[in-house]
Write a sequence for this structure.
């Protein structure tokens, strides 16, 4: 990291004795950690995975205790928002043990939010428990309300189970944001209906541009629908008023006048949002990715296992943050429709 006034940040750290907050080379404070707790999933969404995925041997995964230790090391360094993701986080055996133990950081006030992103298939089983552990809001991914289309997009998913999960989550008092990936020729005609449905149930909706992550067995050009087009089509049906609402994520929000609900747009391709990036991601094997769209990474499993003290992990995190890049450079066009990075979204989590 660049020295300040001739004193290195390591020296400053040593002098103050306090855990140094994570500040990257572009002066962005890193306060948000996303943790992919498993690379496995009970769906095979066409934009996320190929049909025949090979997954990591279970022996390579961090244990739940190790995941807890790693998350807690980030919390000690000023991370105040933690999102569990995957793969499908709720298929990880014992996941509620991890949620329960991480909830101590909510109780201590170190964490402002503990949340997760899920495909909803197991929410019916876990919603009440999540709420009991202090989870207040969750993201549920749902791209269509048509059962056949849902099966086609997810390959293995059952829409009824997801809808039952959403019912259970709302009954448990969880706030839900629906995430829908805009897919050319697949759900583009349905997005207005999704807005009405989500807002009618008191849920926010965020639409996401498909990102070129990993080989999914089809060209991204066939999937990619720029959200500029989605927005202009939705504007024919609704009045969209820009609002300042921020969730700490990259979505830009509008209020839909006719429904009264919030609609977010996540546009990694048409409008890059990296300048305000406050997040990093760890995989279930303890690899830290400083950017979703770049290959550079740092191994945290080695330092984690090398010593019972967290000093090595802290040092490895500090060093990695000095390498956080300015941003991604996703492009999907006629010439460039291959993956920007080789790993799938399920490795680093959404
Ligand atoms: N399984 C959980 C789920 O589906 O919500 C969590 C993991 S999933 C990788 C997280 C989010 O990433 C989902 O909302 C999914 O739609 C989105 N996603 C996956 N692959 C994507 C891609 N190539 N481009 C954009 N979004 C993607
Ligand atoms: Fe599984 Fe989520 Fe990827 Fe779909 S988007 S395959 S549900 S990890």
């Amino acid at each position: 990291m660049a020295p300040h006034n001739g004193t290195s940040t390591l020296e400053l750290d040593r002098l103050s004795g306090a855990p140094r907050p994570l500040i990257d080379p572009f002066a962005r404070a890193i306060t948000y950690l996303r943790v992919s707790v498993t690379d496995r999933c009970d769906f095979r969404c066409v934009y996320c995975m190929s049909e025949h995925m090979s997954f990591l041997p279970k022996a390579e995964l961090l244990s739940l205790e190790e995941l807890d230790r790693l998350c807690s090391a980030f919390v000690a360094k000023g991370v105040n928002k933690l999102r569990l993701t995957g793969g499908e986080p709720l298929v990880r055996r014992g996941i509620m043990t991890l949620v329960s133990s991480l909830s101590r950081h909510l109780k201590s006030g170190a964490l402002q939010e503990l949340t997760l992103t899920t495909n909803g298939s197991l929410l019916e089983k876990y919603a009440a428990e999540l709420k009991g552990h202090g989870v207040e809001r969750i993201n549920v991914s749902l791209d269509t309300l048509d059962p056949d289309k849902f099966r086609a997009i997810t390959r293995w998913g059952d829409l009824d189970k997801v809808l039952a999960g959403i019912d259970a989550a709302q009954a448990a008092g969880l706030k839900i944001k629906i995430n829908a990936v805009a897919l050319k020729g697949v759900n583009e005609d349905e997005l207005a209906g999704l807005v009405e449905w989500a807002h009618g149930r008191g849920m926010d909706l965020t639409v996401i541009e498909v990102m070129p992550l990993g080989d999914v067995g089809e060209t991204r050009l066939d999937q990619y629908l720029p959200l500029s087009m989605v927005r202009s089509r939705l504007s024919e049906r609704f009045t969209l008023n820009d609002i300042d609402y921020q969730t700490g994520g990259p979505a830009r929000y509008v209020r839909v006048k006719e429904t009264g609900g919030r609609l977010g747009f996540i546009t990694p391709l048409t409008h890059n949002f990296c300048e305000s990036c406050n997040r990093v991601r760890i995989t279930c094997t303890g690899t830290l990715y400083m950017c979703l769209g770049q290959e550079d990474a740092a191994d945290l499993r080695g330092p984690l296992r090398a010593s019972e003290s967290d000093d090595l992990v802290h040092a490895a995190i500090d060093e990695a943050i000095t390498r956080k890049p300015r941003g991604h450079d996703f492009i999907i066009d006629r010439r460039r429709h291959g993956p920007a990075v080789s790993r799938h979204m399920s490795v680093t989590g959404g």
